[in-house]
Specification:
By secondary structure, the chain is of the alpha/beta class. The protein has a single domain (2-145), classed as HUPs (Rossmann fold, 3-Layer(aba) Sandwich). The chain has helices at residues 11-27, 41-46, 60-74, 90-104, 126-131; strands at 2-6, 30-38, 79-85, 108-112, 137-141. This is Universal stress protein.
Length: 162
Amino acid sequence: MTFLVPFDGSYLAEAALMRASEYGEALDEDVTALSVIPDDEAYATNVGWYEPGEPESFSVSYVAKRLREGVDDIAPGATFREERTDNGAPAAIAAQITDVADEIRPSVVFLGTDNVGEIAQPVTSVAGGVAANATYDVHIVRYYTPPSISDIQLTEGAYDHS
C-alpha cells in the first residue's frame, strides 16, 4: 500500500510528509507526495512558490522542481507526483487530490493542516474536501513536532475494554 501526502511546501505539509515517511519506514509502506499546482503566477506568488524577478520565469514545471526539492530534503525515499490544474480554488485542488487518491488507493492520507475538524468547514480548506472522502484513513498533522509520550495525558478509562 501507499501513504499519500498532499504537499504544498507549507510547514504543516512538511510535518505531514515527515510523519508519513517515519510511519512508512516503520511499516514498510511507500510514500507519495502529491503537489497540485495551479498554472497561475499570481497564485504561486501568493503562496510563496515563486517570486517575480527570479532567474527563471514562472512555469508549473519550475514550481514542481522546487517542491520536489523540498520533498527530497524531507523524505528522500518518497515518490513525488505533480498535477497541474487551471483552477486554484481549494475545492478544485481537493478534487484533484481525491482523484489521485482514487487512482492510487492509499491506505492513509496524511494531511498537514490546522483547520480540519472545525465545526464549520472553512471555504478556504483543501484539507476538508480531502478528509471527507471515506475510502481511506486520514492522519491529520496539526503540529510540526508530535507530542512526546510523557506529554500525552490519558483519560481515565480510555483503554478500558471490559
